[in-house]
Amino acid sequence: MTLKRLCTGLAIALALALGSGATLARGTGHIFVSSENDNAVTVLDGKTHAVIKVIPTGERPRDMKLTPDRSELFVIASNDERIDVIDLAKLEVVRSFEVGDDPEMFDFSKDGTRVYVSNEDDAMVSVIDVASGELVTTIEVGEEPEGILVSPDGRFLYVTSEVANMVHVIDTATHEIVANVVVGNRPRRFAATPDGAEVWVTNELGGTVTILDGRTHEVKGTVAFEPRGFRAEEVTPVGITMTRDGKTAYVTLGRANHFAVVDVASRAVRDFVLVGSRAWGAALNGDESLLFIANGLSDDVSIVDTRTNRVLRSVPVGRVPHTVVIDD
Amino acid sequence: MPTRLSLRLVCRLLLVAVLAFALPAGAETIRFAYVGLDKDARYDERRLQYRNLAQPFGAPFAGAEVALREARFVGQALGVAFALERATAADAAAMVGRIEALHAEGVRYFLLDAPGGMVAEVARATRGKPLVLFNVSAPDDALRQEACQPHLLHTLPNHAMQADALVQYVVSKKWRTVLLLEGPLADDKLIAAAFENSARRFGLRVVAKREFVLSNDPRLRDQGNVALLTAGPDYDVVFVADSDGEFARGVPYRSVRPRPVVGAEGLVAAAWHWSWDRHGAPQLSNRVERQAKRKMADVDWAAWIAVKAVVEAVLRTENASFDDLLAYLTGEEIIIDGFKGNRLSFRPWDKQLRQPMLLATHNAVIERAPLQGFLHQTNNLDTIGFDRRDSRCSFDGATR
User: Could you give the angle at which helices B281-292 and B61-70 cross, rounded to 10 degrees?
Assistant: First the structure.
């Protein structure tokens, strides 16, 4: 037992020492889905989309991201107030560290040495050193912070406050709030253009996306969503992701059970696509040929062909899927 | 006794305490005042021991305090300060006096925490002044109908909304018939009347209506004994109209037939319930619980959302003049976030905040009304409570 633990420790140390240049596990093709009510991450095969493993995690796993070197998957376990680290080769939790009260979402600093975590219950952002698991500092923000994004150049941290209807812009060097930007109602999550010039934030209750200028921190536009046959109050945008070239944004519309395809430059909505119930999480695969949508209330993931915007199939996963991450 | 005395002293001190958050000198302060009673029987701690499901856990000032704290970043962004003070008075006339004095000092937004009759009296006496009264604790239908006032906004749902939400649920379960037990208090009659009206509206049949009394007198046993009260022709569900709660808490499991109990016990239609866990609700419940040292209930939500609605109007109008702000606050454009999933706004015909209702047991929310399938031509939230066509409210001219 102790020998095994020692070996695991050595393996991690080795992996860390090798750094980002020589990752042990790259591109397994696996699709990871966190299930809030199952306390587990479901792993799907990249080709067959069959469930190949269910990895037990802490309670209420929500946001997930691959480490910048793509060797590990970080999973927030909200009720256990920690991040569980999943080894991509072993497909199991290899270590955990605490990240403050009621964490929901997180992002990595540009160099990958820190994580920024939104602590919903405490109206805080926790800054944590990844190597030591130590708390570096906390930053007070508006109530119920959720979406969190480090700007592409690493200088700014964007955080939504669902209650204050605001985006806080935080300087990552000083941890000071440099701007409080009023956006739509109940702002949730972010996506940024690759140059950082535009930061898009979904407004769940407002039914819109607000576009912030990444340099001046001012609002420069709004995208409204009006899928046919739905009333304004049924359109509740939450999830958002953008293609790497920054040309197309995909926005999930929650209760409207659709996602929207938006042309970033013109801000025109090009398509609405029907998926499952309460569509929230959205993620693209490596070559951006497929879009994965987590449907929180129908316990499945819709897999969409981005060329045709057609749903290829829906795959049952655990209860209340939150986030999808693809390792390819 | 000494604890009660010191409590009163603390309340006195709170009377003058003003909660404001640090801002540059000279910033405008938007002031709220919570006006309640010196002694309010509805929050009597001894009675709350046997509170029924629809009753509060305590006075809702904490809800307003939490909303004020939530407004600090909005204040910073706009360069304004928000402040909240607490005042109490002995009766409606004294409340009017306090409101007039506070209004003269610049307070525009009042959270009125009083029983229905007093709310009507205070609203009548303050009509025409540039101020807003939020009714945060009186569910009386009359305040939204004949006794309505243009400056009286209701954030607490009324009896008709509670009844409609519950009846929608009962009907959706295909429970067709109901036994109605009505208490002796005036409020019990109002609750029963709202329920009967709602039953008619949604096609639920009241097979029998019986009056109960809280008594062990053998001569009154037909009215005091739950087994006798629930005997006779069959029914699918028992509705208990009991504003006091002491009788209702003894109805479940004592009925002759194995039928669910709703109304004041069993399943209740509430504005808020501490076990509601969607749309950021647990975090709000935690904030109120930390502030009040007790769980959060309907009236706390009503006080919280009143402050939040004003803050939202200040934010979106960039602190416009009182008239413009009021127009936005009560207009169709506003999006008020009540943590219940829907965008909320005030009904223009009676100034009632339209909102989903939570159908809750002691420790779980079973459903949210309006239930799926209850549709409305413009806003499904208007399937619960007084829709425009049901309204007998007239803001211009004589009201009563």
Answer: 120
**Do both B42 and B137 map to the same domain?**
yes
- Identify whether residues B318 and B243 lie together within a single domain: no
For residue B209, what is the domain's CATH number? 3.40.50
Which candidate from B74, B282, B286 shows the least CB-CB separation from A164?
A: B74
pLDDT in tens, B14-70: 433 444 444 445 679 999 999 999 999 999 888 776 677 768 899 999 999 999 999
B286-293 contacts at long range (C-beta below 8 A, 24 or more positions apart): B286/A121, B287/A143, B287/B66, B287/B69, B287/B70, B288/B62, B288/B63, B288/B66, B291/B62, B291/B65, B291/B66, B292/B57, B292/B58, B292/B62, B292/B63
The reply to whether B289 and B331 lie within a common domain is yes
Pair B99, B182 in one domain: no
Domain that holds residue B197: 176-259
Closest CA in chain B for residue A204: B341
Question: Each residue of B286-324: pLDDT tens digit?
Answer: 999 999 999 999 999 999 999 999 999 999 999 999 999
Interface test with A, best of B21, B82, B283 (most A CBs within 10 A): B283
Encode pLDDT of B359-393 as tens digits.
Answer: 999 999 999 999 999 999 999 999 999 999 999 99
